[in-house]
Amino acid sequence: MNSQRGFTLLEMLAALAVLALCSSVLVVAFGNGARALQQVQRSDRLSLVARSLIDDASDRALQVGRSDGEWSGVHWQMDVSLMPGAAGTANAYRLDLHVSDGARQARYSTLQVRSAGSGAAR
C-alpha cells in the first residue's frame, strides 16, 4: 500500500488565501488604530493647553473682556464675564476659552468665584 503524507496544491492555495485575507484585515485594523491615536493626541494637546491657560487665569486677577494669544503653536481666545448675581462678598466670573490648532478646535467654559476685594478689575 502506498500512503503519501502531505498537502495537495489546492489545500496550500486555500491556506494562503485565508492567510492573505486575515493579514489584510489586520493591516486595516492597525491603520485605523494609528489614525485614532493621532486624533486623540491632538485633542489631548488642546485639552492640556486649555487646562494650563485656565490654571494661569486662576493665579491672577481676572479682568472682564477678551484676551487672546498663542501658546505652543495653539491659538487661544478667552472671554471673561462677570456673572449677574447678588452683590456680596464674592463675584462669580465665567471664563469661555476657545483653542484651535489648525483645523482642530475646542471650547471650554468654567466658573470662578473671587472675593470682591481680590483686586479683579471690572
TrEMBL record:
Q: Which SUPFAM superfamilies match?
A: Pili subunits
Q: Name one Pfam family in it.
A: N_methyl
**What InterPro entries does its record include?**
N_methyl_site, Pilin-like
This protein's name? General secretion pathway protein GspI
Organism, per UniProt?
Pseudomonas prosekii
Taxonomy of origin reads: Bacteria, Pseudomonadati, Pseudomonadota, Gammaproteobacteria, Pseudomonadales
